[in-house]
Structures are given as structure tokens and as C-alpha cells.
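Ticket closed. Logging final result for Acyltransferase.
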Amino acid sequence: MTISSHAAAPPRPGRYVTLDGMRGIAALAVALFHFDFIRAPHGYVAVDFFFALSGFVLWQAYHARWKEQGYSAVAFMRQRAIRLYPLFLLGMVLCTAVALVQMTGDGWSEKAAYRIFYSLPTNLAMLPSAVTQALFPVNLPAWTLFFELVASLFMVTVLFRLPRMGLVAICLFSAWVLVPVVTERHNANIGALWGEWPVALARTAFSFALGALVARLPQPARRPQGWAGALCLLAIAYLLGLFVGFGMGVSIPVKTPEVGQYDLACILLFWPVLLVLGSRCEVPVLLAPVSKFLGDVSFALYAVHWALIDAFRWLKDEAGVPALPSAALYIATALTVSWFAVKWFDEPVRRKLSSMLRKGREPALSVTAA
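Final structure:
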């Protein structure tokens, strides 16, 4: 879930500001779900929206170059690694530091130490741990970034070569794998554990291929700017929190048939519709700075939010701060940390890596690409 953009610069031609805002809202939903699921009980299905956005953006940014100029798989994957790895590494370092601090004194656990030190060698290489049940036990949400890399490789080696019907076939086969599992389990919160990798792969393949299909639809010469884009932002926020009114004191069972049906509706229907609409209209000028800001920090927010959770859970559970203010403080802190991570770490590191490895020849992405 990544964004290559600069908040202080004017929007580049082709930048999809509505999609920036939608990605930011989706990242907020994931962060709130991990902090306290009742704040955004379906936040995990935002992952599928991230994958669909990546498929859309990568097709838009690279397919023409690959087709017309012979853009190689090595160059493509190098670009993806440069985009993804710095913030992935920062998230891993922060989460490891938090885990080590928690282990000092009475918090020592031999099992936890084993989980950290034996998983880190592969996890730091952006590969799943071979010795734990979780793919990335220190920073659990990082499993999606591994599948992002897998999907990126699949895109440049396979998807770019397929006709539209080939992409449709991948979507249909992936849905055929995904739907029975979600229906049986009553939710789509699947993918972080080793035993779930086939379904995680199906989630990724469906949404990536779907994003590529949307990118292949005829694009309007000019995207109208108005309240249609704002309604898209409201729609994705509403859909992610539909069941509980965004955590205003109403609760639901974690797993019911209705939950699974809702998750599938988001993945198979709502996200495709919102991706089409969001790529064809822009938010009003008044909302554009907020939308661009959310887009700029969304990947950083996804990468680092796990490291902040325990401190604010302590605030909520031990210090007696009410749940809603605790969630608001958590989100405000996460957004602040994410902004600094982008401006003072991610952008300088990527510029340096680009200078070293690409010598300034790669194009900047025009929109978010998770």
C-alpha cells in the first residue's frame, strides 16, 4: 500500500487526487481496526482496496513503457523495491524496538524472544518467517507488502502480456477460491498466517487483476472536479464502518454470516465500483489538500502504525482515558509520525537509492501504488 507523491508540490498531470484520499481513508480504517476493531470493524477489507489500487496504478504507470520500450522485469522490480522497502524497514525497526522494550524486566518471554530473533533475518529481507505461524510476527500487517511484491512480479511477467479476457479469468478463478473460504469463516480477515497463504494469494490476485482491468477501461480526457469525488471518499469511509456507525458505542459479533457477506460485497462489488468512480472524478478544490495529504502519508501510516498500538492501548485500558479520545490521539500521533517518516526518511532514502541504482532514469508514479 504505497504512494509516490509530494504534498508541497502542485499536483502532477495524471495524479488521481480522489484515489489519494480514498487510499488514506482505507489506511486509517486498517489502523483503527488494529487498535480497537470496534472503531472500524471491517478495516481489514481495505487491504483489498489497496491491492486493486496498486493494480490500477502500476498498469497506468508502466504498461505502455513495458510494451513500447521493452521495460524489463528487473528494472520494474527494482523500482518497486525502492518504493516499498524504506518504509517497510522503518516499520520493522520500530516494531522490533517496541517489542524489545516490552521484554525488559518483568516482560521477558523466551517464546517472544525466539519469535523476534529467529524471524528477523528473513523478515528484514521482506520475506516471510519460516519459524513462526505468522508470516511477519513483529509487524503483522507487513504480510500484505510481501504479497504486493509477489503481485508486482506477476504483473510484469504475466499480467502485462494478457488480453482483457485473461485478466477476467484470473478474477473469476481467484473469486472461486476466495468466496467459499470467506463464507465458511464468516469474514475476510485472512492472510497473515502461513496456513492462510492460498487465500491471501487469491485476495491479492483478484484485486490486482481487477485494478488492471479498470486501468484498461477507456479513460476520460478530463476528470471533472466536483462533489462526486467527495462522495466517493464518503462512500469508502461509510462502507468500512457501516455496521457500527464508526464505533459510537454499538457492537456486533465478530463473525456472523452477515459479516462474511458484507466483506465479499466490498471486495467483489463496492471496491471495483469506487475504483472506477474515483479514477474518473476529482474532489472539489477545497478538499484537494486534505485528500493529497492523506494520500502522501497512507503508506507510511500502514507501515508504522503497528508500533504505536500498545502505547495507546495502555492509555485506554490502564490509564483510564475513554476509548474514543484514545483512538483520536492514536490516529493523530500516527498521522504525525507518518508525515515525518515520509518527509525525513522515505523521500530522502528513495532519492538516494534512485540516484545510486537508477541514475534518475525511472519515472515517478503519478498516484498511489500500495
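DSSP finds twelve helices and no strands in the chain. No further action required.
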